[in-house]
Amino acid sequence: FFFLMIRRPPRSTQSRSSAASDVYKRQVHGEFEEMTDKRARKKVIIDRVYELLGKYRQIAIVDVLNVTSNQVQQARTLLRQHDSILVITKNTIIKKAIKLRMNPPTEDDEDYETKKAIWKPIPGLERLPELLEYKVGLIFTDKPIFELKPLIEQNRRPAPAKVGAFAQCDFFIPAGPTGMDPSQISFFHVLQVPTKIQKAQIEIVKDVQVCIKGAKVGASQAALLQKLDLKPFSYGMEMKFVFDSGNILTPEIFNLSPTEVLSKFRQGANYISALSLATGIPTQASLPHMVISAFKNLAGISLVTGYKFRQMDNLSSAPAQAAQPAGGAPAKAAAPKFEEPAKEEVEEDVEMGNIFGDDF
User: Fold this and answer.
1) Alpha-helix runs per DSSP H in 81-195
2) Which long-range contacts does 202-205 make (Cβ < 8 Å, 24+ apart)?
3) Helix, strand, coil proportions of the chain in percent (round to 5)?
4) Residue 139 pairs with which residues in a beta bridge?
5) What's the CA gap between 296 and 311, in Å, rounded?
6) What are phi and psi of 180, to 5 degrees?
7) For 260, left (φ over 0), alpha (ψ -120 to 50), or beta?
């Protein structure tokens, strides 16, 4: 009995151990439920992307770096009005959905019947994961990209320069008063900004470039812009690529308007026609010009030699038919032209003297 009393822990220790065990169990149970919820949400997203890949013909990849949740919500609302859907999630989840979509479903797959009903091959889909870099979103749409792009990129917000961020553009601080008291002029001297004291405030003498496009923003540059309350950058969704029926469109392509595309097509057709005419190789673009040129030659020979053929007879009768008035009514006789009688020239007597002398 004495031995059992020594080995048995106190009741208070037992209660504390039991309480800790219960807490641990609740934590494990909560983490398990949380993991289950995450898996369920992940599966829902994968199934949704799996379905959208076969429903829409175009997929626009947009950059959503530094985009606020409010901007994303506004974009979703706007896209729904144009029968388009915006999906923003982890790139790994989207890549997994694309990988599942590239291969036909098998009987061992979960939701086999559902996937079998909506699956169809998508050419070039294996090129899509290569475009999913950094923080991007996918817009599934059938709307023309040149109409959708302005709607997406118009929602931008000004933003201050952050240390380490890449400058979006070249930014200059304009010359003029800063509204800061002279006690802070040492700050400008450290940054080598030319200033002077004018009317009890610091004034910048000339324009100063603080940001270079593509370069990282330094601490001193960000501090100066913050002091002057300047926001040189703006952030919003920016379209990077477009996946269209297996083709990857870059900004140089989808930024063209229909008028520009038509103009470039006409220019290319003219080049092909000129090249075909110069080399004598008939093409669909040059063939009409060749036929017209050959007919002109035949028409010239017919007019010179008098040789007639059916197309030439139609061409000869065209002026006569055009001269007839509409309705087949006989043409009115042309009014007779009265020619004025020619004026008789009156000979003038010219005094030339007596050609026979003074005998007569």
Assistant:
1) 91-102, 112-118, 145-153, 185-190
2) 202/177, 202/178, 203/175, 203/176, 203/177, 203/178, 204/173, 204/174, 204/175, 204/176, 204/177, 204/178, 205/175
3) 50, 15, 35
4) 60, 86
5) 11
6) -100, 145
7) alpha
Structure tokens at 232: 């040189």
Q: What does DSSP say about strands 238-244 and 247-249: parallel, antiparallel, or unpaired? A: antiparallel
State the maximum Cα–Cα separation within the chain, in Å, rounded to a whole number: 201
Is residue 243 classed as helix, strand or coil in its secondary structure?
Answer: strand
CA pair distance 221, 188, nearest whole angstrom? 11
Single pTM value for the model: 0.60
Residue 201 phi, psi dihedral angles, 5° rounding: -150, 160
The DSSP 8-state label assigned to residue 177 in this structure reads E
Instruction: Convert the pLDDT of each residue in 156-196 to its tens digit.
Output: 888 888 888 888 888 888 888 888 778 878 777 777 788 88
Bridge partners of residue 59, in order along the sequence:
140, 243
